[in-house]
Design goal:
Number of domains of chain C: 1
Number of domains of chain B: 1
Membrane topology (chain C): Multi-pass membrane protein
Structural class of chain B: mainly alpha
Subcellular location (chain C): Cell membrane
Organism (chain C): Nocardioides alpinus
Number of strands of chain C: 0
Number of strands of chain B: 0
Radius of gyration of chain C: 23 Å
Radius of gyration of chain B: 23 Å
Protein name (chain C): ABC transporter permease
Bound molecules: adenosine-5'-triphosphate, magnesium ion
Chains: A alpha/beta (281), B mainly alpha (265), C mainly alpha (261)
Order of helices and strands of chain B: HHHHHHHHHHH
Number of helices of chain B: 11
Strand content of chain B: under 5%
Largest sheet of chain C: none
Oligomer: heterotrimer
Largest interface: B-C, 63 and 61 residues
CATH class of chain C: Mainly Alpha
CATH topology of chain B: MetI-like fold
Family (chain C): Belongs to the binding-protein-dependent transport system permease family.
Shape of chain B: flat
Helix content of chain B: over 70%
């Protein structure tokens, strides 16, 4: 073990501390969506959270974002407890077509979070963000005139335009075709790296999580806890063919897959860190 | 098989078809007179109606009747909008305000506005303000309920999106809730507009307050049946103009709604 | 357990408290009014009860309700029937739009003086006028509702049913258009009620509307307000009846949906 050679880790930017969420319905019916989830995200890190459908991923993201009050535990950002959406958060929602405002053009949608800036700067920022997601020339159209993949890119551009420090994305590529999905994944990786963004990606796609992330958290079924934490040591920039053919990629994939398909019956939360050496052997 | 109709460019064809439809209506009317379904003694011919229209326009009766009706209608709608839309938004936003006022709304809404004509006469006399009062009372409910429903139907995800950009309550209302509610409000306005005409004419008939309704009654009492029919023609035309204006406003302002839901299917 | 019950009780009663406050305000305003034009609510309600106990109930009020109901039902039935025809056979649209737009734009109250002159102030005339008032909104909403049915529904209906226009219409198009037809019916009811009052107040020499107008002319404010309250109650009654029927019809409709899917 060569622990001593690891460079000192970047400071923690975002942390979840014993988060739990129980929904209480109209008639007092309770749904425990999140059991007990804790983790930390370092500055500039790309973290993916995978879990089966309905396990509370969206709930977790909304809690992290400060849109939902957790029943237990605390989210901390920049060493302050999160009570509302902090400045410096950009969020891309799962149902992007519903989150874009249909009465605003693409440009106005992207400028939505820039209200306080002078007009000139707003226009520049919007153009820059749209260029980053490879969407130019549709500024004056309405979101509903665009294809699903284009709408998703508008939603990403809108989050980027505010120059966030943290980008939260909830299954952003779930409802686009395979080719578009690969393009969007590559684009996301490139943007995160270039801007040094701290990125938290929620997905149910194991390949996507491993392909994009530095670390992957695997959630159990509802009420969710972290089944496993996988540090992904694959070279960057990642490549659709080379990375996915890398034997380490396949190992990570098997590990995560096993964790989801054969979760330990033990209900106490466990966090198995798989060191690089172990996976390589 | 190319037919005569399909060879004509669409807008021209549409106009021709519309004219043919209207001509059929005139023919039907004249036919009913000829057969005796409508008594020729009291129902004038199309020519006589148009003639009466011309003379009543020239001597100014018709023009002032239209003027009063449109004035009352506009002011009534304005008052109803000024009261109904803000209250509708308020009860849409606040569950508490909604609960507090719902029973009162449920009780007051079904009251037919013209039943209040006597009350309105006592309060306002028989000039235009009385019509304005009644039109406002009739039209305030559709506007209130339309705005309330529109606010209720705002997608919570859009509110969350706004919150994710750090917007506060007021900014969310102004920048998300209000624009999202515009289509519902325009639809409610279109509904109220035709209701307003019905109430205006009804109130004029009953009270003799100035407008097309009272011109209709006074002409009938004077035995001028051709003017009565000319009044009907004018109220119809007025209604058509109002409907066309509002329908195009609805399409223009709320176009994104129809298109975006279509696009989502 | 106690707290939620208490809360739900206050939730339900807060609306009625507001109504009571409004009624109290009327009472106070009425007592303070010196002009005699605004009687207190208690006097109006006493008078209302008296009218309801007199033979005016059977002579004037119930016939009003019956006419409004008959007119609304007839007008809606005609509106739905014609609406289905015009909505389904789209080839008719370009020919019929202009004349219908004109006819429906004539406010129905404007026809009342003519109708009175031609047919007298009779029951069939009143029912006809009320029916015409309900007819237009129901017709327009039925046409619109049917035209807006998702073509996808119709296509899948062609696949899964015998494919005849009639069965598609009955099993797919009408159910899908039901919400908008219901909207039309609700508007139609409101206009029917207005016409019920107009047809009674204009050119009539008896009936509830006539009595109210007469009281106004005689400055008998208490009986005028009592009449207005009764007209309002009739509107309330018919609207409540409509809501009850709508609820039953809709639950049947939901049940059917649940069974077939
Ligand atoms: N507002 C709510 N009220 C009550 N229960 C809710 C609410 N939102 C979510 N739930 C429940 O919480 C659980 C987790 O929901 P959530 O949307 O977070 O799952 P998810 O992992 O994002 O699912 P998916 O992969 O399908 O997006 C589900 O069982 C859901 O039914
Ligand atoms: Mg989700």
């Amino acid at each position: 073990m060569t622990i001593s050679t690891t460079t000192s880790p970047a400071p923690v930017l975002l942390s979840a501390d014993g988060i739990g969420k129980t929904y209480v319905g109209e008639k007092g019916a309770q749904v425990e969506a999140i059991g007990d989830v804790s983790f930390t995200v370092a500055e500039g890190e790309f973290v993916a959270i995978v879990g089966p459908s309905g396990c509370g991923k969206t709930t977790l993201l909304r809690t992290i974002a400060g849109l939902l009050k957790p029943s237990r535990g605390e989210i901390r950002f920049d060493d302050k407890a999160v009570r509302r959406v902090p400045d410096g958060f950009g969020i891309v929602f799962q149902e992007y077509n519903r989150s874009l405002f249909p009465w605003l053009t693409v440009r106005k949608n992207v400028e939505f979070g820039l209200k306080d800036l002078p007009r000139q700067l707003r226009t520049e920022r919007a153009a820059e963000a749209l260029a980053r997601v490879h969407l130019a020339g549709v500024e004056d159209q309405y979101p509903w005139q665009l294809s699903g993949g284009m709408q998703q890119r508008v939603a990403i551009a809108r989050a980027l335009a505010t120059h966030p420090r943290v980008l939260l994305m909830d299954e952003p590529f779930a409802s686009v075709d395979a080719q578009t999905r690969i393009n969007l994944e590559l684009m996301t990786a490139e943007i995160s790296a270039e801007l040094g963004l701290t990125t938290l990606l929620i997905t149910h796609d194991i390949d996507e999580a491993i392909f994009l992330a530095d670390r992957v958290f695997v959630l159990s079924a509802r009420p969710s806890h972290v089944l496993m934490e996988v540090a992904v040591d694959l070279p960057r920039p990642r490549d659709e063919l080379a990375t996915k053919a890398d034997p380490r990629f396949l190992d990570y994939r098997r590990t995560v897959y096993d964790a989801i398909v054969h979760p330990t019956t033990d209900t106490t939360p466990i966090a198995t860190t798989i060191p690089r050496a172990e996976v390589l052997t | 098989m190319p037919s005569l109709l399909t060879d004509i460019p669409r807008p021209v064809r549409r106009t021709l078809q519309a004219c043919a439809g209207l001509a059929t209506l005139v023919l039907l009317f004249e036919g009913m007179r000829a057969v005796g379904l409508l008594p020729t003694t009291s129902v004038p011919s199309t020519g006589e109606i148009l003639g009466a229209l011309r003379t009543s326009v020239v001597d100014g009766d018709m023009v002032s009747a239209i003027g009063y009706t449109v004035l009352a209608w506009l002011l009534g709608l304005l008052v109803a909008t000024a009261i109904g839309i803000p209250s509708g938004i308020a009860v849409g936003l606040s569950r508490w305000a909604d609960r507090a006022t719902r029973s009162a709304v449920e009780i007051l809404r079904p009251v037919p506005a013209v039943a209040l004509v006597p009350v309105a006469i006592v309060l306002f006399g028989i000039e235009v303000p009385m019509q304005v009062f009644l039109i406002a009372i009739a039209c305030v409910w559709p506007l209130l309920l339309g705005a309330r429903g529109g606010v209720r139907a705002v997608d919570p995800l859009q509110v969350d999106t706004a919150r994710s950009f750090g917007l506060g309550q007021l900014a969310i209302i102004r920048r998300v809730v209000l624009p999202a509610t515009v289509p519902a409000m325009v639809t409610a306005l279109r509904l109220s507009a035709s209701l307003g005409v019905v109430v205006a004419v009804g109130a004029q008939l009953i009270s003799g307050s100035p407008g097309l309704g009272s011109l209709l009654v006074s002409s009938q009492n004077a035995g001028k049946n051709d003017v009565v029919w000319a009044c009907l023609l004018v109220t119809g035309a007025l209604g058509v103009v109002i409907n066309l204006l509002l329908a195009s406003a609805e399409r223009g302002i709320a176009g994104w709604q129809a298109l975006s839901t279509e696009g989502r299917r | 357990m106690k707290a939620p019950t208490f809360r739900s009780v206050t939730h339900r009663s807060v609306g009625w408290i507001f109504v009571l406050v409004l009624m109290g305000l009327w009472e106070i305003a009425g007592r303070r009014d010196a002009s005699g034009l605004f009687p207190p609510l208690s006097e109006v309600l006493t008078e209302t009860l008296e009218v309801l106990r007199s033979d005016a109930l059977t002579n004037d009020i119930l016939p009003s309700v019956a006419r409004a109901l008959a007119g609304f039902v007839l007008g809606s039935a005609a509106g739905i029937a014609l609406g289905v025809v015009l909505g389904w056979w789209r080839a008719l649209e370009p020919w019929t739009t202009a004349p219908l737009e004109f006819l429906r734009a004539v406010p129905v109250p404007a026809l009342v003086p003519l109708a009175v002159a031609l047919y007298g102030s009779t029951d069939p005339m009143k029912v006809g006028i009320i029916a015409l008032g309900a007819f237009w909104p129901v017709l327009l909403n039925t046409v619109d509702g049917i035209r807006r049915v998702d073509p996808g529904y119709i296509e899948s209906a062609r696949v899964y049913t015998s494919g005849s226009s009639f069965s598609i219409l009955r099993r797919v198009v009408l159910p899908a258009a039901t919400p908008q037809i219901t909207t039309g019916l609700r508007i139609g009811l409101a206009i029917s009620l207005i016409l019920m009052v107009v047809s009674e107040m204009f050119g009539a020499s008896s009936g509830l509307g006539y009595l109210v107008l007469q009281s106004q002319r005689l400055y008998a404010m208490t009986s005028m307000y009592a009449g207005v309250v009764i007209l309002a109650l009739v509107g309330l009654l018919l609207t409540a009846l409509f809501s009850a029927v709508e609820k039953r019809a809709m639950s049947w409709f939901d049940g059917m949906k649940g069974r077939t899917s």
